[in-house]
Design a protein that fits this description.
The protein has 71 residues and is mostly helical. The chain has 1 helix and no strands. The radius of gyration is 30 Å and the shape is rod-shaped.
Length: 71
């Protein structure tokens, strides 16, 4: 009887552990998808920032050496 109770408790704990592992695995998959999406957004942001920086360099280069008060 004692052995059967221990076996039952072990099996119940194993099922709980399996369920919890499944939840963690599912959450990890969702997290990986979110990180992938953020990585794509960051890549887009970096590309846009480089474009803006290039535009600023062009504008500043064209203004270099010019009189700021001239029209």
């Amino acid at each position: 009887m004692y052995c059967a109770a221990l076996t039952r408790r072990f099996e119940e704990n194993a099922q709980t552990a399996d369920r919890e592992f499944g939840i963690v695995k599912s959450d990890l998959t969702a997290l990986r998808l979110q990180v992938g999406n953020l990585d794509q957004k960051l890549d887009g942001f970096i590309a846009e920032q480089r474009r803006v920086n290039a535009t600023l360099v062009e504008l500043l280069t064209s203004l270099a050496g010019k009189d700021p008060n001239a029209s």
